[in-house]
Amino acid sequence: MYMDNIQILGFKGTINSIGETLDYIDSIKEDGEIIQLLNADSIVSKNHIIHGVNQALLAFDRGENLANDLSVEIALRCSAQRQISKAFNILGLKEGEMNLCVILINSKDHFEELSKIFTPDDSVFDLDESNLIKIYKISDDEIINMSLEDIIIDRIAKLTVNY
Questions:
Q1: What digits encode the pLDDT tens for the residues 93-102?
Q2: What pTM, to 2 d.p., does this model score?
Q3: 6-161 CATH choice from 3.30.2380.10, 3.40.50.410, 2.60.34.10, 3.40.50.2300
Q4: What are phi and psi of 2, to 5 degrees?
Q5: Helix, strand, coil shares of the chain as percentages rounded to 5?
Q6: Residue 123 DSSP one-character state
């Protein structure tokens, strides 16, 4: 699969029903478009997401994907996990107030449609280092030797190496 373009947008919002939210997302996207919603509180940077998406696409191209669905593969790669339940625990949607990272791949601009249910806010990408260290179980030795972003990108890359 080819990634023609990627947009990464930040939003805040309240999710009353995960199913209804996903139904709305499905209703606005067109054939071939990918709209992925992730928990922005578990994201180090936009580069983290770009790397995870790229690795998911490469995994599908090489037949090394861990999931049958590209959206699930993106969640696995971006969370640096092999188990879907762990990936969704880290990056999945939850009911209630959420900081959201919206990934649009090979997609037209859905900013207006997304803004009908969420509030645009790039501050969701502001780094909470102590929270991310806890989420990703990063050791003191790791954080002394590498940046948080480099640690996560390294873990994403190791999913492929350890395949």
A1: 999 999 999 9
A2: 0.91
A3: 3.30.2380.10
A4: -110, 135
A5: 50, 15, 30
A6: G
pLDDT in tens, 74-117: 999 999 999 999 999 999 999 999 999 999 998 888 999 999 99
Residue with tokens 């947008």: 9
Would you state the torsion angle of the CA atoms of residues 150, 59, 111, 27, taken in this order, to the nearest 10 degrees? -150
Instruction: List strands edge to edge, sheet with 34-39.
Output: 34-39, 96-105, 6-15, 119-120
State mean pLDDT over 118-125: 97
Q: How many residues does the chain have?
A: 163
The full set of domain ranges for the chain reads 6-161
Q: Are residues 127 and 41 in contact, defined by beta-carbon separation less than 8 angstroms? A: no
Contact 91, 75 (CB under 8 A): yes
